[in-house]
Prior knowledge:
The complex is a heterodimer. By secondary structure, chain A is of the alpha+beta class.
Amino acid sequence: MRRFRLSLFVKYAALIVGLVIAVLVVNGGLDLWFTYQDTKQELIGLQKEKAEAAAQRIEEFVTEIQQQVGWTTFAQWALTPIEQRRYDYVRLLRQVPAITELVELDGKGKEQLKVSRLAMDVVGGGADHAQDASFTEALAKHVYFGPVYFRKESEPYMTMALAGSGRNAGVTVAEVNLKLIWDVVTALKVGKEGYAYVVDRRGRLIAHPDISLVLRDTDLRSLPQVAAALAGSGEAVALARNLAGRRVLSASAAIPDLGWHVFVEQPLAEAFTPLYAAALRGAAIVLFGLLLAGLAGLFLSRRMIGPIRTLEAGARRIGGGELDHRLDIKTGDELEELAGQFNRMTEQLQESYAGLERKVEERTRDLAETLEQQTATADVLKVISRSTFDLERVLDTLVGTATRLCAADIGIIWRLEGDVFRPLGTHGASAELMHAFAQDLPRPGRETLASRTVQEGRIVHIVDVLADPAYKYGEAAKLGGYRTALGVPLVREGVPFGAFSLARKEVKPFTDKQIELVATFADQAVIAIENVRLITETREALERQTATAEVLQVINTSPGELTPVFDAVLEKALRLCEASFGHMFRYDGRSMRLAASRGMPAEEVGWFREWVPDKGSAMDEIVRGAQVAHIADVIDTDAYRSGIESRVKLVEVFGARTALWVALRKDEALLGVIVIYRREVRAFTDKQISLLQTFADQAVIAIENVRLLNELRDRSAELARSVEELKTLGEVGQAVSSTLDLETVLTTVVTRAVEIAEADSGTLFRYSRERREFRLYRAVGFDETLLAEARAIRIPLEHSTLGLAATRRAPVETTALVEMPANAMRDLMIKAGFHSTVVVPLVYGERILGGFTLQRRTGKAFPANVLSLLQTLANQSAMAIQNARLFREIQEQSRQLELASQHKSQFLANMSHELRTPLNAILGYTEMMADGLYGELGEKAKGVLERVQANGRHLLGLINDVLDLSKIEAGQLKLSIEDYSVPAVVQQVVSATESLARNKSLELTSTIGEAMPAGRGDERRLTQVLLNLVGNAIKFTDKGSVSIRALAANGQFEIAVVDTGPGIKPEDCARIFDEFQQVDDTNTRKKGGTGLGLAISRRIVQMHGGRIEVDSTVGQGSTFRVIIPQRAEETEAA
Amino acid sequence: MRRRELIAALLGAAAVWPLAAQAQQAQKTPLVGVLMIVAEHGPEGQARLKAFREGLAALGWVEGKNVRVEYRWSAGDAALVERYVSELLAMKPDVILANGTPVIAALKRTTKTVPIVGVLVTDPVRLGFVANLARPGGNITGFSFIDSDLIGKWRQLLSESAPDTKRTVLLFDPLINPQYYDLLGDLGPPPSGAPEIAPTSARTMAEVEGALATMGRSKESGLIIPPDGFLVAHLKEIAALAMQQRLPAISVYRQFALEGGLLSYGPDVADIFRRAAAYIDRILKGARPADLPVQQPTKFELVINLKTAKALGLALPPLLLAGADEVIE
Lengths: 1134, 329
């Protein structure tokens, strides 16, 4: 069949395809040939046009220049003054950008004037150009165009010379920049890869997009198209190869005046792209024909084999199971007959299938039943897991499902509670039946199904209750109408505690399968009941813990307060111990005092405010050492019978019956008691008693906390007082040492003295040596009038308390002012109401400076410790006064010094700047020489150059140092503060000085401490400092080692430079940091240096808020240490 | 149904095929590094940027589309030049446009392979950037800026506009541009009557101020501002200082005259940047810098600030004005 289809297809297809292709190929070939001829002609024409346009532009360019230059050739022009001629040349340059230079030659070829864009103009230069081609040719032919030449090796130029008219006329020579021609040529675009170029009359390339070809002076005469154009034969070569050997389409145009030719060329590959497209189209049409022919063949073969495929497809469907499918072929031949046979066979198959299906259906029904039971069981389990806490619902569901599945009518779950059985879940039982059961609940024995099941501890199956002689609930059975009953015991830990019972209203025994099912349901019921029991117990335990925790929280949140704690304790105790009201008492060794009360109206509490334990009472037992007292009914106590009102009221008014007392004890000592009451006679359980004890313990903790807290408070207050005193001393001391403002110091002293001594007023007097008298300087605690009066008084040295104290150089104290030497001040003080006073002298060395006094209105003496404190304050004040005087003197001297220093610094700054300018030039130049920018240098010259460089750098270093120092001194140097890393600084210095050390065979090492934090400061300046120290160390050390050690501690960096050099004498150690100081001996003279490095280093370190130290032993070496804060902010310029 | 699908697929393939053949293979977008000696903000920088972009656009390059350009502006700062050189080289650019002699010197030290188009280079042969102008031979080509003759031209223009000038001062940074000594050497001694030229260090504005103050005292001095990364960043201030000291001044930068300097004469910088774009184009299309000749400036511009001339009390000769391309009144 397949072979048949293939051969038919081939026959038809071959015929159609062959015909179509033949027609298309002939047509396409002809079309392509004509298109090729047309395109070629068109392209050459186009290129020719472009070449001519370019040639015309170039010609215009040259002609334009020729015309512009032309008017300088008039006879009259040569007669105008030279300045006018120069002016005209400048104008000409301005108008014609392509001219770079114009030269006027006189009739003898001598240069008269030269005007240039690029260089200085020259007037009357007089150079001789008589032999130049430009001169001779121009004179001969009037106009001369020179060959193209390259200025500065790469700029295309042409000399154009024009002879003047008239006798003995001169020549104007113009240098014309031809880059414009390059631009014209480069800008010319032919297609994508086409290009243009220009050759001169000798076939040399003078313009081409590839400038390097032009500059290489390429000769193009070897190209046939160029040769043809130069020959001027008129027969242009259109198809040729270019310099690169590519086939091109070429066209050209001539510039007759110059003898140049412009060529425009385009690679054939690109030029004929449209032709390729046409060829492609032809191929596409052939392909399409092929496709059509193929489709026609396909269609014809499809018509022939249609019915056979229908037959084949039908057989496949029936084989695949579609038995109701029938073949439909109406061809009226063997094929139709064959289809009929197929259809009959299919019908028989269909019938035998129907029988089989019926059997399968029956089996399926059986399976469904089993499935229903399993589904119901699963549903029950779901209900149980969803509603764990709703026991009744769970049990109802269980018993209901069991009843339904076992085809029973009534189901009840019983539980033995005490000595009766109570129903927990029911299904199908009428209200009357349940009522009847409630009236007479089953009791253990064999009389009922539930009790018998529990008694026997196994499944009980009564086929007919009315026929069972032992069954005593016949009435109920009649009421409920049930006959057959089944009971399954509910068992916990091997002990039956209830029954799962089912009953039917007809006599029909339960099958084994049903009994098994009920047993499973009974197990589920046990689990559900157990779950609920466990959860209830857990919840209660949790409640107790929560209460305890809450009380503890109250203790924590209200330190120092007992009431909220007691209230919380009582409240929880009442709730958890199921008591109605209660009290909390504190015991003071004799009686109990009420501390808290709950559950009783506030106005009634008064009765129990104080409670003296009666002999033999529960409270008495507690006082005697009992931990707990528990009375089942207080009516049975002596206390109640004693008739004391509060005890009677407790019972009769407030209804107390059962009572529980728990002691609050701390290490045997009784702190109080907590008591709770119930208004019914019901004993507290052990659990409740232990709970109340826990609460009692918490109350004890709270009481202890409060006691400790109070103690702590007292101690703190005491400490604060001593601290205050110390602070005063510190403050005054600080004021004295930190401020030189005398007034601030003295005011601080007096104010603080008054505060410490708890005086009512304080005064400060200054002593005048000339007048030998004291005058008031400061006063605290005086009103306006008193102050004014006191200020007016002069106190003589003699006959005054102040004088007495000053001469004794010790404080004088009295509690009765009236007893002191009489003077105006004493009288004023007495008038102001002061009684006691202390007078403290201010003495510095032998000098009396003044004194201060404190007064009190009461006659109370000042304690000894205050007196000694005042003496200290006085000494500090005396020092402050002295400091202030010295400071004033120093200030004046420094101001003068600073002025002088600033003048010097300014001078130095100016001078070093002047020096740096030429020095920078020398260094820049020598650097470039050394780099070989001015040609290779000989070894000797290199050596000399190195020395020049080394000395120059040294000199620059010196000048920079001087400039740095003068900047620092003039206050102009500012640090640029940023983050830096000490290891990086050290590394930088090591790599900069390594070669120096190596040259002297010194060992250079660096040790950096672990975990160095990032520093903050001026990294460049700090590097400068370290470089200076290490440089010095290497310079002065002749053998041994130089080591750098950096470490961080106490918020500071310490960087030490240790050498094994000659060392520094102790008397020199202090001087070396001064400007222009070196240790003065022959050795240092030999080493050189400015003596500024250390001075600058010190200033920089100081500006960082740090210091620099030296430590040295002569003959052993020196250690320079830089100590700076890790995070420096800029301090005042040093 | 299958038959129809087959026909559709065949027709579709026939339609798509020519398109697919035309579509070029996607290529990596080339990267051009641009390192300028001037500052980005400021008329000089913007003028250069504009001209360069025009040049690129004229050749069909669109930034961000078929070419990526990374710009760096060093504002005459030698340290920044060093940093940007390494930054740009790290990006592996296809070509770098390097503006300014110090910039090219820095690149020359760092790479021998990345093609570099130098723009406004002074004396490239003597400084060793190229073997010769026609055939640079290495990875550097470009556009030169001034030569020694132009210094003579400046002196001439200065003394023509201020005939009293006895001495001219050429400001420059001797550490970065010591080649001015060579140029002055090439220029030779002044012709009789022409003022001498004194090279003077100008590395900071303080130095410039100092130099101008000294000149201002002598009354017969003229000022020359040649190409220099530092000076071009401070043209306006220098023009103001020159006016303050009543000094006739000339600069290579057109901007100088626009900002109040007396004269500017020099190559048309914008024209050079446009031409530089053409070299970038050729290098991106495969040309080697070794084969591209170093080009000389072709257009020169003379700008005269008549306002400044008036303020300085100078009567400019017609000869000078006749040559001016722009006169600011």
